[in-house]
From TrEMBL:
Belongs to the protein kinase superfamily. The gene is LOC105168131. It comes from the Eukaryota. Residues 16-58 are annotated as: Disordered. The lineage of its organism: Eukaryota, Viridiplantae, Streptophyta, Embryophyta, Tracheophyta. This is non-specific serine/threonine protein kinase.
């Protein structure tokens, strides 16, 4: 289903907007990023590497991995979809917080059992039955620590709902672009990048490749420990098979994240996802949106604005997020910028595979002997000191609030 949260809109063959608000956040969680963060290793293959080719609707909905909820069960779980249970709203409809018994999966009292996020599709929404079914199809079969877990669905009359695990920290988009009590630290940003890279790499390396097709900050959800999980598989597509090098398909996605060759030709490959990853990695470094209409000229497009600085160690600080206040390893920051630049190569054949991107990012985790771009460094070395460094006025926003940021990001469709 395209995006889980926010005000996303998709329009056939045109650019439209979709900045989904934070996903599945809790209304009581604390957004403070830990000062030292470890990334839990993931080894082993997932339980559904081979996706059986095309399945009927009946086969998809009869998956043993997801529960078929009745509408009444979800109504009880969300307290009749009460306004104070609302987590977010978007072009798809609404997302509500609910509770179910972790063993029977039946509705539970608020505050007890398993916390869930229930996505309720608008009958007239942008994301129709096909995308709803695509989401059930993929998340009903694919299981990985860096993919959001689909618990079940409801298909009753005109009602289309999806039930997910609840992600307390919401979406990466909210943490990067909303002012809060504490910005994401460098360690947290790299942890998120590595987790998201693991998710994408898993999809691309599966026996039957899956192309995600809508990788962006609002589709990356964060659990209580800032582990990243990919959500929203409504636009996912099976990769090319046999001798085919690409999949020809209708152009959908989000403006600013979609690979240029895909937008121009409709030819989709895994390298299209790699480009999108490069954009998100650049967002993590800069704290800027992929597309920002509030800025002027070239600064409206993050990639166009940042490219001249990404390969220059002496000028890289000009694109680094000022909310980091210079607290990041210089060598690691330049290495991450280099990885982003490689992912953003105009020639898709020259972009690295996600498995290669993941390996490079993991090498950056807590590098020994890394030189810190600290306040002391700033006083000694004016070349490395960001002239933009200052404290931003912070307006505290409830971390658990997944409400849309009231801005739209263009979508291609």
């Amino acid at each position: 289903m395209g995006n889980c949260f926010g005000s996303s809109a998709r329009v056939d063959a045109t650019l439209s907007t979709a900045s989904e608000a934070s996903k599945f956040p809790s209304k009581t969680s604390n957004s403070s990023a830990p000062s030292s963060i470890s990334i839990p290793p993931y080894s082993g293959k997932n339980s559904a590497e081979s996706l059986p080719t095309p399945r009927s609707e009946a086969e998809i909905l009869s998956s043993p991995n997801v529960k078929a909820f009745s509408f009444n069960e979800l109504r009880n779980a969300t307290r009749n979809f009460r306004p104070d249970s609302l987590l977010g709203e978007g072009g798809f409809g609404y997302v509500f917080k609910g509770w179910i018994d972790e063993h029977t999966l039946s509705a539970a009292k608020p505050g007890s059992g398993l916390v869930i996020a229930v996505k309720k599709l608008k009958p007239e929404g942008f994301q129709g039955h096909k995308e709803w079914l695509t989401e059930v199809n993929y998340l009903g079969q694919l299981h990985h620590p860096n993919l959001v877990k689909l618990i079940g669905y409801c298909f009753e009359g005109d009602n289309r709902l999806l039930v997910y695990e609840f992600m307390p920290k919401g979406s990466l988009e909210n943490h990067l672009f909303r002012r809060g009590p504490q910005p994401l630290s460098w360690a947290t940003r790299m942890k998120v990048a590595i987790g998201a890279a693991r998710g994408l790499s898993f999809l691309h390396e599966a026996e039957e490749q899956v192309i995600y097709r809508d990788f962006k900050a609002s589709n990356i959800l964060l659990d209580g420990e800032f582990n990243a999980k990919l959500s929203d598989f409504g636009l996912a597509k099976a990769g090319p098979t046999g001798d085919r090098t690409h999949v020809s398909t209708q152009v959908v996605g989000t403006h600013g994240y979609a690979a240029p060759e895909y937008v121009a030709t409709g030819r989709l490959t895994a390298k299209s996802d790699v480009y999108s990853f490069g954009v998100v990695l650049l967002e993590l470094l800069s704290g800027r949106r992929a597309v920002d209409k509030t800025k002027v000229g070239v600064e409206q497009n993050l990639v166009d604005w940042a490219k001249p600085y990404m390969g220059d160690k002496r000028r890289l600080f000009r694109i680094m997020d000022i909310k980091l206040e210079g607290q990041y390893p210089q060598k690691a920051a330049f290495a991450a910028a280099t990885i982003a630049s490689q992912c953003l190569n105009q020639d898709p054949k020259l972009r690295p595979r996600m498995a290669e991107v993941l390996a490079k990012l993991e090498e950056l985790q807590a590098p020994k002997g890394a030189t810190r771009h600290s306040k002391a460094d700033n006083q000694v070395d004016p070349v490395l000191m960001s002239p933009l460094k200052h404290h931003l006025p912070m307006n505290v926003t409830p971390l658990a609030s997944p409400l849309p940021a009231n801005r739209k990001a263009s979508r291609v469709r």
